[in-house]
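BUG-157 | component: ligand-complex export | severity: low

The export step for coenzyme A jobs runs without errors, but we want the raw record kept on the ticket for reference. Input record follows.
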Amino acid sequence: MMFRVLPRTTDDRRLVVGWVPDADALYLFTGPRLHWPLTESQLAEMEGRNGFTAWMLVDDETNTPVGHFDFSLQSGTARIGRIILAPQMRGRGLAHVLVDNAIQQARRLGASELTLNVIVGNEPAIRTYERAGFVTIAESARPGVRGMSRLLEESAP
Ligand SMILES: CC(C)(COP(=O)(O)OP(=O)(O)OC[C@H]1O[C@@H](n2cnc3c(N)ncnc32)[C@H](O)[C@@H]1OP(=O)(O)O)[C@@H](O)C(=O)NCCC(=O)NCCS
């Protein structure tokens, strides 16, 4: 399968809300930042913030969105958030594709470092980030949260 990264649309917001079935899933998705029930307007509200962009991983053949992530970009550091795959797309190795595409997109935005927070115990996510070259940073996180980061080499011409 081939994929593209496209800016999140208003329709995509509705789709992403549908990928988060309950409060526990919301906590893994976004930590304490957003509140159950997740709404499209909570996602929309974040779009007004400085340096914020939100993106979809889209199946090129069918134009179906299969994943989502966002960035808050500040002085060369892109904090990646709200990484999620459509529930029916999980468990097939697509997590790595999603994160690799997020890394490429961060480079396109001019970032030199990526950081993220992941809830302790979210093994599919942690394993995916480690495989993509993220390392755990000691200082950052609150209890129950693991901070991770990855430097971005210059993008290929
Ligand atoms: C996080 C998410 C994108 C991962 O995608 P996924 O398709 O479920 O992940 P996979 O099944 O491909 O698993 C990813 C890796 O973790 C490993 N893994 C899965 N469950 C594991 C477990 N319980 N313990 C250890 N490793 C585990 C897999 O083997 C795989 O590693 P590998 O490719 O090296 O074999 C997806 O689960 C998701 O959207 N979750 C909901 C939102 C979320 O939690 N987002 C993270 C925000 S920080």
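Assignee comment: Attached the raw record above. The first strand starts at residue 3 and ends at 7.
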